[in-house]
Amino acid sequence: MPFNTVASLSHSRRALFSTLQSGSKFTNNFKAYLVDDKGKPGSFFHDVPLSLNSADRTATMVVEIPRYTQGKFEISKELPFNPIVQDTKKGKLRFVNNVFPFHGYPYNYGALPQTWEDPTTSTAENKGFFGDNDPLDVVEIGGSLGKLGQVKTVRILGALALIDDGEMDWKIIAVDALDPLAPKLVNGIKDIEKVMPAALDGLRKWFKNYKRPTGKPENAFAFGGEYLDADTAMKIVEQCHSRWSKLIQGEVDAKRKCLPQIANTTLIGTPGLTGEARPEIEEAGKERSISEEVNTVYYFKD
């Protein structure tokens, strides 16, 4: 089985993770599983440490969608071991459309592990909206092209409050801590506006319009669509990490909500801790071709 090995530097030690491919990319059978440096399987959602460092404003990111690609890959909440899979709608694989001037996703896109936007509780920080039941989304604006399943340390710079289908869907803005831009962005949002002119405005426009090619309306934002600063973003991450802690301890009463899988291989004392269980791995196949229709470009006025 092929391994795509990438390293992640936490604030205390260097942790090496790899992805193990099952099935062929761009098919319903594709899954990318997490394994550690000893070959032990784990969950991208639960077993990758967040490693939140308040002093440096750094945390761990899992890359789900590399910049400029269109496949809508995400950490599965439902499958054991939470592999990265391609999202589907009505049985059809999902690709994000090209909204001019962007091709696919404008930046590396992924999730902060060990965080959870709680769909059972509304908070003042969420302006009364409930969470979307996912790990926190993170947009990494550095210059390097990410890889699916890559685990890396990022510096948190700010946040954008997207309202998606009536739920809060925070977008944490960050930069790879090892990126040459990182030392120039220590003040977060204000520095991005100086160092990367038009980047934040372009990203907001993309989030506003990227679903319109499918016939959906523009996305809405809380806080008037303004980017919130790094300190506020850190508080959001801390809150969602606390919500995740309750989830992984089995302390959340879901009622009508379908909660994520909490199976894990490293969190001693949690009800989802597994023994020597391993995911079923299919033979890795050749990447499938994408329909030419996916390359269509769409144009919208603001």
TrEMBL record:
Instruction: Give, as one word, the top-level EC class.
Output: hydrolase
Q: Which GO terms describe its cellular component?
A: cytoplasm
The record ties this protein, via InterPro entries, to:
Pyrophosphatase (IPR008162), Pyrophosphatase_sf (IPR036649)
Gene Ontology MF term list: inorganic diphosphate phosphatase activity; magnesium ion binding
Q: What is its EC number?
A: 3.6.1.1
Does the keyword section mention Hydrolase? yes
Q: Does the keyword Hydrolase apply?
A: yes
Keywords attached to this entry:
Hydrolase, Magnesium, Metal-binding
Instruction: Name one process (GO BP) from the record.
Output: phosphate-containing compound metabolic process
- Cofactor (UniProt): Mg(2+)
Q: Which PANTHER family match?
A: INORGANIC PYROPHOSPHATASE
State the family named in the UniProt similarity comment for this chain.
Belongs to the PPase family.
Protein name as annotated = inorganic diphosphatase
